Amino acid sequence: MTTYRFAGFWRRFVAYMIDGFIIGVIFTLLVIIATVAYVAGALSNDGVRLVTKLTDPARMATISALIWAFSIILNIAYFTYFHGSTGRTPGKSLMGLQVVSVQGTPLSYGTAFLRSVGYLVSSLVFCLGYIWIGFDRRKQGWHDKIAGTVVIIRPATYDRAGIEVSEGAPALVAPPAVGEFSTNHTVAQPETFVTPAGDDDAYGGGQKMP
């Protein structure tokens, strides 16, 4: 059983900014495509009506509300998919982070969805739910408390293709070459990566993984 450190506020903040940039790019492209399609369709029918709609304050308020709702749905879908599939968004992967349950198990899509919705709660009152990460013993934000999750530091080296070798396993011996006597060429054992216990930003504690 390996113990991983809880990820601190700043490391998670950088990961979130990376994900925010990716979501922003996706959102902008989709809005541009939708806008071009809408304008092209409207101009092909009646350009005057289009201008009237775009200058109507009530119509603009409705469009703004729809764009805001779409951005929330996109955020929830993005984090639900990545956290439910691997526990890692692109931003978390770059920062060596992973979201797991408080029991140390992978997230289900249901838990990932609940955590994503919890972001809305953490955003309330000057993003106090996110700031809470810096003071919580297990580095849990309000969205983590809601979903029963933690974020751990788990370097990407654990995802490399390879083979697990127990510490007590005998060394592998290569066979002698043709025409040569046996010289016991020992194949070097793969490097073992261990993340020490403790916490990020000088806080104690860690998450045990089965």
Q: Explain this structure to me?
A:
With 210 residues, the chain is mainly α. The protein has 7 helices and 6 strands; from the N terminus they run E-H-H-H-H-E-H-H-H-E-E-E-E. The chain has helices at residues 9-45, 47-54, 57-85, 90-94, 109-122, 124-131, 142-147; strands at residues 2-4, 97-101, 149-153, 173-174, 185-186, 207-209. The strands form 3 sheets. It has a two-stranded antiparallel sheet with strand order 1-6. A two-stranded antiparallel sheet has the order 2-3. Strands 4-5 form a two-stranded antiparallel sheet. Helix 1 packs antiparallel against helix 2. The model is unreliable at 169-173 and 181-203 (pLDDT under 50).
What labels describe this entry?
mainly alpha; 6 strands; two-stranded antiparallel ribbon; 7 helices; single chain; elongated; 210 residues; two-stranded antiparallel sheet
Give a topology summary.
Blueprint: E1 2-4, H1 9-45, H2 47-54, H3 57-85, H4 90-94, E2 97-101, H5 109-122, H6 124-131, H7 142-147, E3 149-153, E4 173-174, E5 185-186, E6 207-209
Antiparallel strand pairs: 1-6, 2-3, 4-5
DSSP summary, beta strand count: 6
The class by helix and strand makeup works out as mainly alpha
Number of helices: 7
Shape descriptor reads elongated
Our measurement of the CA-to-CA distance between the termini, rounded to an integer number of angstroms, reads 5 Å
Q: What fraction of the residues are assigned to beta strands by DSSP?
A: 5-15%
Sequence of secondary-structure elements: EHHHHEHHHEEEE
What's the Cα radius of gyration? Answer: 25 Å
Mean pLDDT figure: 81
Cross-sheet strand order for the largest sheet:
1-6
Low-confidence stretches: 169-173, 181-203
